[in-house]
Write a structure and sequence with these properties.
The protein has 17 helices and 20 strands. The protein is α+β, with helices and mostly antiparallel strands and about 525 residues long. The protein has 2 domains: about 250 residues, ATPase, nucleotide binding domain (Nucleotidyltransferase, domain 5, 2-Layer Sandwich), CATH 3.30.420; about 120 residues, Methane Monooxygenase Hydroxylase, Chain G, domain 1, CATH 1.20.58. Strands 1, 2, 3, 5, 9, 10 and 11 form a 7-stranded mixed sheet that branches. It has a 7-stranded mixed sheet with strand order 14-15-13-12-18-19-20, sandwiched between helices. Strands 4-7-6-8 form a 4-stranded antiparallel sheet. Helix 14 links the parallel strand 18 and strand 19. Helix 13 packs across helix 14. The protein is globular, with a radius of gyration of 22 Å.
Length: about 525
C-alpha cells in the first residue's frame, strides 16, 4: 500500500529531503550541500546536474533511514528557489556563465546581473505590472532571460528548454516538460487569471521567441496536481519506482506558506500570513479577492491554493545579513550555528545587564542586497549609523542585536504596506531557519505587534511540499484536505506590551533613515 510521501526542497546552499506519513509526521530528514559559483559581482550560478545528483542521494538516504520501500511511496513533490535553468535542445546543460562552462547552467535566484533589464521592465508601465507590484525584480525570470539573450546570444541560440528550478526537477523525475502554475505565475509574469502569456509584453522585452526557444507551454499544472509518474531512469536514480506520482513543482517560499498555514486554509485565512524566514524572508498572504499594491509581488491567481490570490512581500537578505555581520566583524568568524548561538546568548546577557540602553545608539537599514518590499528598489544599500572603534566580541553582539532589530523592523514595514492595500493580519505563522532563534522570534512578535505562531513541524517547507504530493497522489482529496490532515500547530508567542514604546521609537528612526538615505542619493 502506498501511504508515504517524499518531499524535496532545494534551497540556496543545500538540498533537503523528508519522508512523511499521510498524517504529516516526518519520519526522516536528510540534507546535503550544493555549491554556488560567484564568477563576478552580482553573478551567482549553480550546476543543475550537481543539484539533481544531490537530490537523488538525499532521497535514497531518507528512504533508507525511514525504512520505507519504493512500493510504499505514493508521490514525490519538489520545491526550489526561483533559479533559472537553461538546457539545450537535447536536454544537455548550456552555460549561463561568463566563464563559458556549460556545467554552470543555472542562474541563482539572488543573482542581480539583470538589474538594467528589470529597471527597463519596471519603467515600461505595461499592464502586466499590475500583477507584480508595479515593478519587476532582477530575481525574476524575464529580466534574466533578457540578459541572456542580449549578453550571451550563443547560449540563446543553443537553448531548447528554460526551466524554473522546481520545474527542472519535476522534468528530471518524470520526463514531462509540463510547467507549474506556481512557478510561471510568480516568476515568469504568466497571467493565470487572464489567458497566460502576454505576447505584447514578451515582444516589448525582446523575447518574442521565448516560448519556442525555451520549450514553454501555453498552459500549466496547478498546485496539488500531478505532472505524471516517476520515469524508469529517475526511479533507478532516486530509489523509487514507476508507480510513484510526481507533483507539480512549487516555489520554496510558497511551499513553506502552505505548510505553515495548512491548518487554517478554510478558517479566516485573510487574518493570517506566513513568514518564511531563512537566508532571505518572505511574507505570504492569501485572499479570495485580489488586492494589488505597489511593491508587493502579485497578486497571483491559483499560485498556491485553488480559488485564491497570493501576495508576497520580502526581504532579499535577512538571515544572510546576520551571517554577513558575523563574517565581517573583527571578533566574528565563520557563521556556523554554534557561533550564532554564542552571540545570541551573550546578547541576552547584555540586554539584562544594560537594559534599553544596550546598543541603543546603533541603527541599521538592512538593505544590503536591495529592498524587495515595500520599496521595490533593488539598488537600495544598507546603512549602519553609530559605529565606534569597538572590535570586541561584545561590540559584535551589539551590532548583531541591532541588525536583528532592523530585520524585524523591515518586516513591520512590509506588514504596514499590506495593511495599506486592505490586509488585516493579526497572526504570523513563522517557518524556516529563524524559528531556531528565540531572539528573532521574540523580536518578530514585539516589533510587529502580531502574534507569532511557530510551526510545530521541524520543516514546514518540506511539509507543504508533502501536502502537494498527497494531493497529487489522491491520498487526500485536495490541498485543503491535505492541509487539515497534515498540519499541526506549534507554540504561540504574543507581543510584550512593555516593549512597544521602545520599538515604536526604533521604527520612527528606521523610517527617518530611509528618508535620509534618499536625500543623500539625490545630492
Amino acid at each position: 500500500m502506498r501511504e508515504f510521501l517524499v518531499a524535496v526542497d532545494v534551497g540556496t546552499g543545500s538540498a533537503r529531503v523528508g519522508v512523511f506519513t499521510v498524517k504529516g509526521a516526518l519520519l526522516s530528514r536528510v540534507a546535503h550541500p550544493i555549491s554556488m559559483s560567484r564568477p563576478q559581482e552580482n553573478h551567482a550560478e549553480h550546476q543543475s546536474e550537481e543539484i539533481w545528483q544531490v537530490v537523488c542521494r538525499c532521497v535514497r538516504e531518507a528512504l533508507d533511514i525511514a525504512k520505507v520501500t519504493a512500493g510504499q511511496v505514493a508521490a514525490i513533490g519538489f520545491d526550489a528557489t526561483c533559479s533559472l535553468v537553461v538546457r539545450g535542445k537535447k536536454g544537455e546543460p548550456v552555460t549561463v556563465s561568463v566563464t563559458g562552462e556549460d556545467r554552470f547552467d543555472t542562474i541563482v535566484w539572488l543573482d542581480h546581473r539583470a538589474l538594467a533589464q528589470s529597471d527597463f521592465l519596471s519603467a515600461s508601465g505595461h499592464p502586466v505590472l499590475e500583477f507584480s507590484g508595479q515593478s519587476i525584480s532582477p530575481e525574476m525570470q524575464i529580466p534574466k532571460l533578457m540578459w541572456l539573450k542580449q549578453q550571451m546570444p550563443e547560449t540563446w541560440q543553443r537553448s531548447g528548454y528554460f526551466f524554473d528550478l522546481a520545474d527542472f526537477l519535476t522534468w528530471k523525475a518524470s520526463g514531462s516538460a509540463n510547467r507549474s502554475l506556481c512557478t510561471l505565475t510568480a516568476k515568469w509574469n504568466f497571467l493565470a487569471h487572464d489567458g497566460g502569456w502576454s505576447e505584447d509584453y514578451l515582444a516589448m522585452a525582446g523575447l518574442e521567441d521565448l516560448l519556442s526557444r525555451g520549450g514553454l507551454p501555453s498552459s500549466a499544472i496547478g498546485p496539488g496536481a500531478s505532472v505524471g509518474f516517476v520515469s524508469a531512469e529517475a526511479a533507478q536514480q532516486l530509489g523509487l519506482d514507476t508507480g510513484c506520482k510526481v507533483a507539480a513543482g512549487m516555489i520554496d517560499a510558497y511551499a513553506g506558506a502552505l505548510g505553515a498555514l495548512g491548518g487554517c486554509l478554510k478558517d479566516d485565512i485573510e487574518q493570517h500570513a506566513a513568514l518564511i524566514a531563512g537566508t532571505s524572508s518572505c511574507l505570504v498572504a492569501l485572499t479570495e479577492k485580489p488586492k494589488p499594491g505597489h511593491s508587493l509581488w502579485g497578486p497571483y491567481w491559483d499560485c498556491v491554493l485553488p480559488g485564491h490570490w497570493l501576495v508576497e512581500g520580502g526581504q532579499s537578505v535577512s538571515g544572510g545579513l546576520l551571517d554577513y555581520i558575523v563574517q565581517m566583524h573583527a571578533a566574528g568568524g565563520k557563521p556556523e550555528t554554534s557561533l550564532h548561538q554564542r552571540i545570541e546568548q551573550r546578547v541576552q546577557q547584555l540586554r539584562v545587564m544594560e537594559g534599553a540602553e544596550f546598543g541603543s545608539r546603533l541603527h541599521v537599514l538592512p538593505d544590503f542586497h536591495g529592498n524587495r518590499s515595500p520599496l521595490a528598489d533593488p539598488h537600495a544599500l544598507g546603512v549602519v549609523s553609530g559605529l565606534t572603534l569597538d572590535m570586541s566580541f561584545d561590540g559584535l553582539c551589539r551590532l548583531y542585536w541591532r541588525t536583528a532589530v532592523s530585520i524585524a523592523l523591515g518586516t513591520r514595514h512590509i506588514l504596514e504596506a499590506m495593511e495599506d492595500t486592505g490586509y488585516h493580519i493579526d497572526t504570523l505563522h513563522v517557518t524556516g531557519g529563524h524559528v531556531h532563534s528565540r531572539l528573532l522570534m521574540e523580536l518578530y512578535a514585539d516589533v510587529t505587534g502580531r502574534n507569532i505562531l511557530m510551526s510545530k513541524t521541524v520543516d514546514a517547507v518540506l511539509l507543504g511540499t508533502a501536502m502537494t504530493a498527497a494531493s497529487a497522489a489522491g491520498v487526500h482529496a485536495d490541498l485543503f484536505a491535505a492541509g487539515k490532515a497534515m498540519h499541526s500547530a506549534g507554540e504561540m508567542l504574543r507581543p510584550n506590551p512593555d516593549l512597544t514604546g521602545g520599538y515604536d521609537r526604533d521604527y520612527r528612526r528606521f523610517m527617518a533613515m530611509q528618508r535620509h538615505r534618499e536625500e543623500l542619493e539625490s545630492l
